Amino acid sequence: MTLLAAAVIGYLLGSIPFGLLLTRLAGLGDVRRIGSGSIGATNVLRTGSKGAAALTLLLDLGKGAAAVLAARGWGEDAVLVAAGCAILGHMFPIWLALRGGKGVATALGVLLALAWPVALAAAMVWLAAALLFHYSSLAALVAAAAATIMAPFVVDPLTAAVIAGIALLITLRHHANIRRLIAGTESRISLRKG
Q1: pLDDT per residue over 1-55, tens digit each?
Q2: Which end of the chain has less Cβ packing within 10 Å, N or C?
């Protein structure tokens, strides 16, 4: 029962579509109708509101961490179930016909609560790749790979396997981005102020 409760709590927290809610509250319309159609921070950035994108990033990160922390009292297995279900909730929210985000910010929040050194390393890799290449999708893919490689040196094998599974889900959710990167048609991002 505790594993089921952890799964439900993780999924429900993960499924809160902060990007969609924030853009509607800000009068920016339906974020699903622009760019990639995703509800994540990168697509919110395409509305032109860096503030809404930053807040989406923080809230998506927060819900991933909250899912893990909420399950802590039920043991390590419940924590890992909640972690995985938070990612699934973000990617496949029942409220949005299972069409959610790519899971990058939520995964970072999960990692912060599970293994902060892995989260910090992944965030630094993402930032370096984004600054070098100006592709959020490429940065996410490289960061996911970095987290998978580093995890076995920091956490137990089961937790490392869950982190690798999350990284695989993120990679699969970026299938269209990977095709655009190969074709040279992927949208670039700017991290400069203004």
Answers
A1: 899 999 999 999 999 999 999 999 999 989 999 888 889 998 898 888 889 999 9
A2: C
Query: What are the pLDDT digits (tens) for 56-83?
Result: 999 999 999 999 999 999 999 999 999 9
Q: What angle do CA 128, 136, 101 make, to 5 degrees?
A: 135
DSSP assignment string, the chain: -HHHHHHHHHHHHHT--HHHHHHHHTT---GGGSTT---SHHHHHTTT-HHHHHHHHHHHHHHHHHHHHHTGGG-HHHHHHHHHHHHHHHHS-GGGTT-----HHHHHHHHHHH-HHHHHHHHHHHHHHHHHH--HHHHHHHHHHHHHHHHHHHS-HHHHHHHHHHHHHHHHHTHHHHHHHHHT-PPP---S--
How many other C-beta atoms can be found within 10 angstroms of the C-beta atom of residue 116?
A: 12
Enter the tokens of residue 84. 């995985």
Model confidence, pTM: 0.92
